[in-house]
Specification:
This protein is mostly helical. It is built from eight helices and five strands; from the N terminus they run H-E-E-E-H-H-H-H-H-E-E-H-H.
Length: 183
């Protein structure tokens, strides 16, 4: 060994940078995201789509459900065609608008979805108004009335959010994207 080589450490060096290359003898550089979340937030959409198509675990992390390779391809096509976000695809599947079988994925919009949402929302509002009247005109102490109103406000807000996310927003998103015709 020469004098310079004896001073050098005898190990493999790793350098995680933007691109991958082999620089010299025991020196390697590579890309390695720390987590799936950081991968999804830092990579270009084309890379994320191709990896989601190849890797069912990444697809499940991204969308929240499992699908076969052909169905994953169809879902990515639907997402690209109408410019949907990952979250919108998740909600469509949760609401039943995105129907999945082992061989097919398709959007099945329903006119009854927003009608059911608005009907339940109006029925909830009427029930909340009746309960508010009942609480305000009761003979209970003021602190019990306040507790009742707080519980009523929190529970009705949660229900209103659910009706909005489950029924109203998915139907509006389908209409705005052009996936369904305006009636």
């Amino acid at each position: 060994m020469t004098g310079n080589q004896a001073d050098m450490p005898q190990g493999t060096q790793f350098n995680y940078g933007r691109t991958q290359r082999i620089a010299a003898r025991d020196y390697y550089e590579g890309i390695g995201p720390g987590s799936t979340k950081s991968f999804l937030s830092t990579q270009p959409q084309d890379i994320i789509d191709s990896r989601s198509l190849e890797n069912p675990r990444l697809f499940k992390y991204r969308y929240g459900f499992e699908a076969t390779r052909s169905v994953r391809h169809q879902i990515l096509d639907i997402q690209r065609q109408y410019d949907y976000s990952d979250r919108e695809i998740c909600w469509f599947q949760f609401c039943g608008i995105l129907r999945l079988t082992r061989t097919e994925a398709k959007l099945v919009p329903s006119i009854f979805l927003p009608i059911a949402g608005w009907t339940q929302f109006i029925a909830m509002l009427l029930a909340v108004l009746l309960v508010i009247l009942r609480i305000v005109f009761s003979t209970a102490p003021a602190w019990k009335q306040a507790c009742g109103l707080i519980v009523l406000f929190v529970s009705s807000t949660i229900l209103a959010w659910f009706f909005k996310c489950y029924y109203i927003i998915p139907a509006r998103t389908l209409k705005q994207s052009g996936a369904v015709e305006s009636r």
